[in-house]
Specification:
single chain; alpha+beta; Fumarylacetoacetate hydrolase, domain 2; six-stranded mixed beta sheet; five-stranded mixed beta sheet; 18 strands; binds zinc ion
Length: about 220
């Protein structure tokens, strides 16, 4: 398995880290019966999890409930630690949408035992990602809409205006822990409506601003 390259405006990035944000939409927190966090919940996936649009997704075998979570994904293009949301904006190279695939049954067991989530979140094929659109002033970060469709039925609808921590805020928060690098990806959390995927399903994520991408589960 080779780590994927991502491209924005003819510039290639080779992501070395994928930061993922949990519990960033109130309605999704309610459906999983969690508390609203005081600071972002952060976990990571290795870049070997990335799956380009149109590639097939091999269903993991170490769990039963494979869930889709559609999310806005940010590509960072700068090095450092932004200390304001204004500065964080200048770290954004591109935007797209992606799926934070999750083995929900495995995650629930790990949560009960207070164990790390990698088995549930960081398996091979767990990070399908669309093509990046360059970030510029024509994209309003506070109003990006997206949806997730499984076999032509709409399962999730989201908008960045429903996030608890905004995209810029998340970048500032990540910078308090890590020195950020060009190529870093940020999965920004999922709205309500998560649910299962079975072999043979076709999952499509769509955003007026960021494009439409599909994957088949095998
Ligand atoms: Zn997620």
């Amino acid at each position: 398995m080779i780590a994927m390259k991502v491209k924005v405006k003819e510039k290639n990035y080779e992501p070395q880290r994928i930061f993922c944000i949990g519990r960033n939409y109130v309605e999704h927190i309610r459906e999983l019966d969690h508390d609203v966090p005081q600071q972002p919940v952060i976990f990571m996936k290795p870049p070997t999890c990335l799956v380009a649009p149109g590639q097939k997704i091999c269903r993991p075998r170490h769990g039963n409930e494979l869930h889709y979570e559609s999310e806005i994904v940010v590509l960072l293009g700068a090095h450092g630690r932004p200390d304001s949301e204004d500065e964080a904006g200048s770290f954004i190279a591109g935007l797209t949408i992606g799926l934070d695939l999750t083995l929900r049954d495995v995650q629930n067991e790990l949560k009960k035992k207070g164990l790390p989530w990698e088995r549930a979140k960081a398996f091979d094929f767990s990070a399908p990602v669309g093509l990046f659109r360059p970030f510029d002033h024509t994209i309003d970060l506070e109003n990006i809409s997206f949806s997730c469709t499984v076999n032509d039925l709409v399962r999730q609808r989201g908008n960045s205006n429903l996030m608890i921590f905004s995209i810029k805020r998340l970048i500032v928060e990540l910078g308090t822990v890590w020195d950020l690098l060009p190529g870093d990806l940020v999965y920004t959390g999922t709205p309500a409506g998560v649910g299962p995927l079975a072999s043979g399903d076709r999952v499509t994520i769509q955003s007026e601003q960021l494009g439409s991408y599909s994957w088949e589960i095998i």
